[in-house]
Amino acid sequence: MERNNYDIAILLATYNGGKYIWEQLESLFQQSCKLFHLYVRDDGSSDDTLKIVQQFHEMFPDKVTILKDSQKHRGAAKSFMYLLENVDSEYYMFCDQDDIWLLEKIEKTFARMKEVEVAYAGAAQVSGTAEAEKVAKNVPILVATDLGVVDEQLNLLSESFNKDLKIDVFRKHPELICVRHVVTGCTMMFNRAAKLASLPMSPRATMHDEWVALCVHFKGGVISILDDATILYRQHTSNTLGAEQARKGFFARAIARAGQKQFFQVAKLLHKDFGLSYLKFLMYKILYSWF
């Protein structure tokens, strides 16, 4: 277990990302907030990904750790969860290998995290700073931000990915999270309590970020969405998941074979792991398909 001496652990899962990873790493070490340590797990890259990561390790030896793992090709979700399991920190952020973090991404997200902690402690009506911090730290808290969607050359395609994710609907109807991916992993920061609520990952879960968000939602936690776009979310042919899929409407996804498979996978996950009935899941699907 790696113990992080900084406030924030940034978890970066890599696989053949040599084309873009230098720009991503550069954007991390240009952040206005420096209270982080970067932990990297490579999934068996055959390009120069690890060589580039090693260069940054040499430039920032006290800020970069490469985790060794004898198992290769875990896939993105299990790679991120391996990092989460093996790093102990107060706060965590997932990082993709091909995006660009804007300069104040960590600072803005961390500030919102602290605001949520203070608000929750106040709502719990506890007296004393130490007691308030203790209460807040025991509550799973997840903060996410908006994204700017860009193409391979960083040309802006959309100023707000959150509009496609129906974040305003989610704020009014949090149960939307059961049927729509409303939290994007590369924008997330969550606390240790959220980590503990998310481990181990269910064998029925398909993506790490969706799983963490569902665990926070169903286990009495708080999900707060910041409207500022703090990341350039790069779309290209090698994306594991991209913005285009999220823009497709419910019916377009439902008639596709992949959409049908996902429908049953999510329904089973919510029923088996969180006790949501199949009937309620179907009701949510139908209700929120019109938004």
CATH architecture classification name = Alpha-Beta Complex
Mean pLDDT: 91
CATH topology: Spore Coat Polysaccharide Biosynthesis Protein SpsA, Chain A
The helix content is: 40-55%
For the largest beta-sheet, the strand count, sense and barrel status come to: 9 strands, mixed
Could you give a short description of this structure?
This protein has 291 residues and is of the alpha/beta class.
Describe this structure in words.
- The chain has 291 residues and is of the alpha/beta class.
- The protein has 13 helices and 11 strands.
- It has a single domain, classed as Spore Coat Polysaccharide Biosynthesis Protein SpsA, Chain A (Alpha-Beta Complex).
- Strands 2, 3, 4, 6, 7, 8, 9, 10 and 11 form a 9-stranded mixed sheet that branches. A two-stranded parallel sheet has the order 1-5.
- The longest helix has 19 residues.
- The termini are far apart.
- The model has no long low-confidence stretch (mean pLDDT 91).
Annotation keywords:
291 residues; alpha/beta; Spore Coat Polysaccharide Biosynthesis Protein SpsA, Chain A; 9-stranded mixed β-sheet; globular
Explain the layout of strands and helices.
Layout: E1 2-3, E2 8-14, H1 21-28, E3 36-42, H2 49-59, E4 64-66, H3 76-86, E5 87-88, E6 91-95, E7 100-101, H4 105-123, H5 129-137, E8 141-150, E9 156-158, H6 161-164, H7 167-172, E10 189-191, H8 192-198, H9 208-218, E11 222-234, H10 243-247, H11 250-255, H12 257-274, H13 278-288
Helix pairs in contact: 4-5, 8-9
